[in-house]
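Predict fold of Mediator of RNA polymerase II transcription subunit 18; 270 aa.
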Amino acid sequence: MQELFLSSTVANEDLQRALRILQGYCGMKPVTFLRRRLIWEGPRARTGLKGVDQGIYKRQPLLREPHLWKGLHEQLVRQSYIITLLYDVDRDQFGQSEKMEVQDDEDSAKDEPAINFDQLPGSLRWTDLPDPAGGRPVSSRLIVNIENERGLCTILHTMNHRLNQEMIQESHRFVLGNVVFDFSRYLQLPPSETEPVSSIRIHLPAYDSLVPFDSENKWVLTASVLVFNGSNPDHIQKGIDELMTVKTDFEGCFDFQALERLVFDTRVKI
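Predicted 3D structure, encoded as tokens:
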């Protein structure tokens, strides 16, 4: 599957105005969501890459999208990449342990059951280095999205991937036809006194304690189109035309650009 996209940024103080503009343009209210983003780094090797462990088909015979796993395997045996796992989270899940302590129920806070991400449905996202521009006015890259799957952390462990980082993604989404508009910002979790950096956090801190990765707290605005048959030039051109219409419609409002492709490089550095 091919993703065509254009990127822009919006200052935090301009976000509400930008949301109103997109609401009028798309004729819908934004879909707002929070996600935990678990960043997994592939093996630091150039050769001998195993890709997707073929044993998962026996251990997890109910994998929802076997053809997508096959496509992912074909990419990972040629190059080591960073892979992202996404899990939806509610705002009220933040700061639960602090709330328990305030209620003088420290034992309950300590005994709070650990989150087992393998039991939760999540999404796996792999993206390739975008293609060289070659005169194309939009960014274009291969992607694999495997959604609503369980056992993803264990699968990545069997593929010799290691957890590198966790962050929170806050997003507002609009859809118009084939075009998806996403306003997103990425938030860092403050250091934990009890949980190591290299582990998935059991207790989420208070939401107000999260720190934007961007020092200016800007939002990334992406307009994207998915092309399921990326080998069909007519389908690609249709997606490009739709994005160029968006770019034209928002001239003077949002500065949509095809950014330098290395900005989106997910290859593991050896």
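The chain has seven helices and nine strands.
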